[in-house]
From TrEMBL:
<feature type="domain" description="HNH nuclease">
    <location>
        <begin position="315"/>
        <end position="367"/>
    </location>
</feature>
<feature type="compositionally biased region" description="Basic and acidic residues">
    <location>
        <begin position="381"/>
        <end position="392"/>
    </location>
</feature>
<dbReference type="Pfam" id="PF02720">
    <property type="entry name" value="DUF222"/>
</dbReference>
<dbReference type="InterPro" id="IPR003615">
    <property type="entry name" value="HNH_nuc"/>
</dbReference>
<feature type="region of interest" description="Disordered">
    <location>
        <begin position="381"/>
        <end position="414"/>
    </location>
</feature>
<protein>
    <recommendedName>
        <fullName>HNH nuclease domain-containing protein</fullName>
    </recommendedName>
</protein>
<dbReference type="InterPro" id="IPR003870">
    <property type="entry name" value="DUF222"/>
</dbReference>
<feature type="compositionally biased region" description="Pro residues">
    <location>
        <begin position="405"/>
        <end position="414"/>
    </location>
</feature>
Amino acid sequence: MEQLLAAVDALAAENLGPLFGPALLDRLSSLLAAQNRLAAEVARTVREAEVSGAAEVDGLQTMASWLRGHGHLSTVEAARVVRTGRALAQLPGMAAAFAAGTVTAEQAAVIGRVAEPEHLTRAAEQGVDLGGVDTVLTQVAITRPHADVARAVHHYLQRLDADGPEPDPTGGRRLVIARHADGSISGRFDLEAVGGEKLQAALESVVQAGRCAGDERTRGQQLADALVQLCDNQLASGNLPVLRGHKPQVIVKVGVEDLVDPSVGAGAAELGFGATVSAARARWLACDGVVTRIVLGPGGMPLEHGRTVRLVPPHVRRAAEVRDRGCVFTGCGAPTHWCDVHHLLAWIDGGQTSLANSALLCERHHTKVHHGFRVERQPDGRWRTRRPDGSEIRTGLLRTGPGRTGPPLPAAAA
């Protein structure tokens, strides 16, 4: 082990600057093979530790919990390593290729599914030659991309249980969310084919409906925005299950001094699930929300609870929907039910909650407007959008009249 660590130290000390394309790729290929071999040793050691009950030395019952606590692995990754270790004894061909560095840890984990107890039982009942399966799948892993390995394993498992009962689609579904220090979240989910199709269909409908001129977002950003928009739509509809007598909504707690201060006010507001955001973000969320005044005493105890006030009453929103017919940001065609009512002059700065001071903006463009962009309604009813530097965004089609688009205007008029 000391020699291994010394070798890694020597690698880390190498100057990569003089190397160019082919030499860097050769180095990377060797490192990836070494990484696979180390992953194989980790899985083998974890299995031996599991068999011997080594986790008990540190007061833990399972190696998965040891890996989470001592190895700082995520729940998903710890479980994957344990499952891979268990599969090594049942699949010697895969184990040898893994140890040689020609199979990755991800591939080994996927192939390892065939060695799970229920699948081994079915294979034994049907007289399946597990050695042959091991050889074929290992060869696929050595020569083909990861996706092909996953398809081959899926094909085998389907044929293994071709006459079995239709599985419960909810049995394999998982959604794991990890919260980070800044309040952002990341996660991983697993859905079966039908559930995945439903999710993709819902996201794709929002992605296609939300595409606008000059959209430079990546595919990943488009899908993420679509997911947030779906949540917005569902929260706004009021049809979600009631939680402790209240309809679920985004909750923001912010001091009145930070709320009225025009500065950004980083970390001044707290969200319902514990994340902190800036006062500027809180003011944006309050644009089309409800505000409740609560007076707190020196010890943080509520002394007075004021009336909850809807900043945008229903009749103003309905009028804005009739007038604007969707997001007024130039080039966007998001429908009214995607939109917030934005105060052109911020309500906290004395802006009235009136039709004349309102504009419909989708979630993405509402964010843009609160980060320097500006929308303006001209006397003739046209909406114009300006960048933070004051220049106007033009698409060749401008909104005319009550939210409609008309033919291109002459250069002088535009």
